[in-house]
Fold:
Amino acid sequence: MVTDTDLTQKQKSRQPIGFDYKAVARYLSGFLGLVIIVLIFQIASEGGLLQPRNIRLLINQSFIIMCGAMGASFVLAQGNLDLSLGGVVGITSTLGVMTAKVYGPVAALAVALVVGLCVGLIIGSVHVLFKVPAIILTICMMFALRGITWILNDDGSIAMPASLAKYDTLPNKLIVVGIVFVIVFILFEYTKVGKYSTAIGANATAARQSGVPVNQMKVLAYAISGFFGGLCGFLSMIRAASSSTNSGSMFEINVLTALVIGGMSLNGGSGAKMKSGLIGALMLAIIQNGLIIWGLNDKWQQAVQGAILIIAVAISYDRKNVVVID
Amino acid sequence: MKKLIKTVALILTLVLAISVLLTGCQQTPTGPKETTTAPEAKDKLPAGTKIGMTILVNDGLFATMAQYIQYIADNIGFELVLDVGAFSPEDQVASVENLIAAGCQGIVFCNFSEAVLPKIASVCDEAEVYWAQYCRQVDDPEIVASLNNAKYYVGRCFENNENVAVRVVKAFEDLNVKKTAIIGPATGDTTTDTVSAKYKALCQEKGIEVYTEIRNAQEAADCTAAAETIVSNFPDVEGIIVLSGSTGKLEGVFKGLENVNKLGKIKVGALDASANIIEDLRNGSVSCANSGQFVDNMFTTMLVLNSVLGTPLKTDGKATIECEYVAFYKAADAEFYYAHMENLGEKIFAYNLDEIRQMIKYFNPDFSYEKLQAIATAYSVEDVKTRHNVS
Amino acid sequence: MSHSHVLKVNNLSKSFGPTQALQDVSLVLSAGEIRGLIGENGSGKSTLSNIIVGIIKPDSGEMELRGEKYQPHSMLDADRNKISMIVQEMATINKISVAANLFSGQEMQFGRFGLINQRRMNTAAKEALLRIGVDWIEPESDIDTISFEDRKLVELARAVENDPDILIVDETTTALSQKGREIMYRIMQELKDQNKSVLFISHDLSEIIDQCDTVTVLRDGQLVDTLEKEQMEIHRIQYLMIGRNITEGYYRSDYDFSHSDEVVLKIENVSYDQLQNVSINLHRGEILGIGGLSDCGMHDLGKIAFGLLKPESGSVTLPARNITIKSPAVAIKNKIGYMSKNRDQEALLLSTSIKSNVCLPSLDILKKAFIIARTSEKKLANRVCSALDVRMSSINQHCMYLSGGNKQKVVVAKWLGNESDILIMDCPTRGIDIGVKQMIYQLMQDLKAEGKAILMISEELPELIGMSDNILIMKDGRISASFQRSEDLTEAQIIKYMIS
Ligand SMILES: Nc1ncnc2c1ncn2[C@@H]1O[C@H](COP(=O)(O)OP(=O)(O)OP(=O)(O)O)[C@@H](O)[C@H]1O
Ligand SMILES: [Mg+2]
Structure:
């Protein structure tokens, strides 16, 4: 018989020792892209990038995308996409403005969150019940929501009551991002929701066999994404002090870009990192803002932006989680 | 292998950073340096003037505007910072913020829809940066009121959009067109909405039928599809009004009509001009086009520039400058226009550099708001013919 | 039979990060030789064979094939050099037909003007399958629809089709039922008769001794010894593998089949696909073995018991709590665990850490309020992984980098941590070395003693006889016989109810 002492001895002799420098390097490489981009633009703008006033501006321009990206983490962890986010922002910011005019800001926030949540629930349920591929479904939803946004903004745009402008302050933004971060971080790293989501992304069959309620989790992930999409709608209404037929246009692309350059794996699974949204949104804002401060000819802006994005993805993409068949 | 990829990526980044830095450094000195070597130059503005401009897309009309202002900036000595592509309210706010961050003292702005304006006003007031709108009238009295209270809001410049509808209806009447349809981009854009509304009102008045209005045709391909849809659903349609011809929309409509063999048979009236407008007018693809509004942006720039230089044109209240489109009915109209008013190749414009300088108090202390208004009101083919001595 | 050297391997070494998988290994393979390769999980067997077929490049060392320097760059390269391998994990390509899998990469031999003649390819596939004696697989059927065992046979047919001089079989027999194994052995003998060579990896000592001419033993990446046929002896090989003696046999030594009368899991009149009205009662403290040929329906039965498949009729219930098992989530909530036979595809998250894999079914146990603390995850993972001696660099290592047997240990560890009352084990010791096998068998006995119930589905008769209180034998979707634990029970008694 094998005895216990035998085992522990065997264990000790076999455990390879050594500092896992690769893991540390991998962790840091998530930030490498951000650091490099900051460096490039700090030099190119002759120090203009990190002026306190400009930092405030970077936060202004990235905090909504940050919230959207963090909210979408669960959907992405499951290996799905949510392309309806722009539509959600469009409709919730419009409904938000309309509600705010009559019932005030709290009601506007509530409406935005509830509508966002409902959209997410609908997407998730249809996806699960009718087995419609999520990409197609969310694109359809995006068009539908855009259409409604157009109808609601029948004059093209609606102005927010001026009294709400006082909420558009830096501390408020930091608080909102902070709260969203804490909520999503805990959900993602320390609860079943996050762990089940990454498991689904890694291997849905195996996840199901390990007791993960796959369908429920998919619905939940879209509900979370929609909920935070609604929050983004409210925030963008406050920020732009208005809604328009174009509110939220391209938002889903910006969120996706932010997540990818932040190092999120589109295949889901354990390549899904919650911090990607934060880092990526900041990188995106820096690239857009930096190119303008830099004063580069606008024809070059597009090309340089493309080049930087490619490099950022190359650096931050977590290849370790991708099984390449050769 | 992984290490290799990472190293390559790193090297690439560095190469990019360095190369871009070098080209970037080459670009900046051209403007300011010249002015420092000749600070007393009579035809240059003092060094360090920086104006920002937001354009919705970088083609067609907006590209012309940008090139015209760039030409002016290069020659009278200020720096122009362009920001392209802001449609949603959030992006429009970001665009203005970025231009402010780039150090612009004044911003020439075009809103997509107007509810965002109070926010822009507060951003600019906070940053103490002058700004004015081009190509945009403001309808909502509340928004007008809030703009009037904004310290750094200089004013706006716009065309009489209703007259576009008037001219198209007139052209249709002349051609005996009675059954029409509308194709245009998504609602929410002030200019196209105004034209559309006026057109429908006039048609009702004059007994012209409007079968349908297809909005949300954002791209050339959408316009092609829209034209085909209209013809197949209303085979007896005789005329189509196309709101906004930029980014190939008008060409898209032509393509659609050609596909169903109706090009030239169905008359087209347009808000903007197509790329080959001379040809299109000649062969009857289009019967009435409206163009020439690129100067609008220049007037706005003058408003902002004068304020930035500490010599505002209007000290009491906000400026409103209105000008008229240049209408094309025949190929000859367009030929003249592209030779003498908007000739990007030879840099011949409706207003030459000397005339521009006269619009800036720094060069011409006698200039005034009323004079600018008068210049704008006079803007027409005839006006250019007399000023520039051409025929 | 000439003994010319076909393949010479000189001083191969390979390390993965801090793990030294292979160290200075040299061996010579002769024509007409069936060489066994044996060693504990993670001892480097797959690494060695992967190097020979060019999937992995060695850090140092060289190879010689038929007297010439041999440096394969890919499996295709090895194919061209007439070396074929059946890998340990599943290697078929999903979502395409059996025939397309059989000829993937060589479709063009049926091509004309860039189009593939599907019918000709199917006919050729049918012939190839018949050549190895498999007449039950239809070449047109989708590979996903056929069983795990059959997919392995398709891989075998594919390898044979290549007419290899050297065939490498990496830990495949445990995926096969008796019938499949016999096909495998026959083909190995045929190759040997044609003066070709076979490198045969297995954890089954008696199989190695029966089939191989020589056996090479690896331990911790090093070659320990190579034995000739006459030197082969179970205890000697065991000693060489582990470095110490396993004194007792590893199955249960008692013949006490008693267990509580309480039925904990009731499968009633279940029909599904070919399963017809199968009823099974699993009792508290019982180890119930289910045996049969791979396609007899027993694997589906396991899935149905866990709620993974919905039976066409009949039900699975927990009589004590009056609960019907409708989904795996319900099953797990009621403390049922399930180990799939198809571990890479169904039981593991390959690109995820060992820790996450192990903790996944146990999150409900680990959570306090709704928070799952990192430390409790680590504690659980470390506990169960060391109990099963998983060889890994740390619990954060991704499962895809584990050796086949160690992956299986992670699957077992997962349900060990889950504290399940009922365990459904489908081929629980697939690819596991003798040392760990013994541990798992001991574990099963401990669980039985604690009053837990185990439903063990197995294709290995010795395992069924050695471990079960009761054995049910299935044939063509029905239970054809049942046996009680007894000293006198033999394989021969059982086999006749499985076949014919
Ligand atoms: N790609 C890899 N990355 C990191 N470690 C690896 C990799 N492949 C194998 N290893 C490690 O190398 C060692 C040898 O693995 P190998 O697969 O050769 O074992 P094996 O003898 O085939 O075991 P088994 O009987 O379990 O199949 C193991 O410790 C394993 O974890
Ligand atoms: Mg192996």
In short: The longest helix of chain C spans residues 178-193.
